[in-house]
Amino acid sequence: MAVDYAAIWRALNPRQQFYLKTIYEEDQAREAAQRAAGASGNWNRTPASVWRTIDAYHEPAVPDLVGRTDLQIRWRGAGHHDPGTGSTIKVLVTHDLITTGSRPTRFGLVHQVAMTKQGRALMRWVTRPRASRTAVPLKEQAAEVLGQLYDASRTSHRQGSGRSRRHAAARSPVGRRRSSGRWRAGGW
Question: How many CB atoms lie under 10 A from the CB of residue 33?
Answer without folding.
Answer: 12
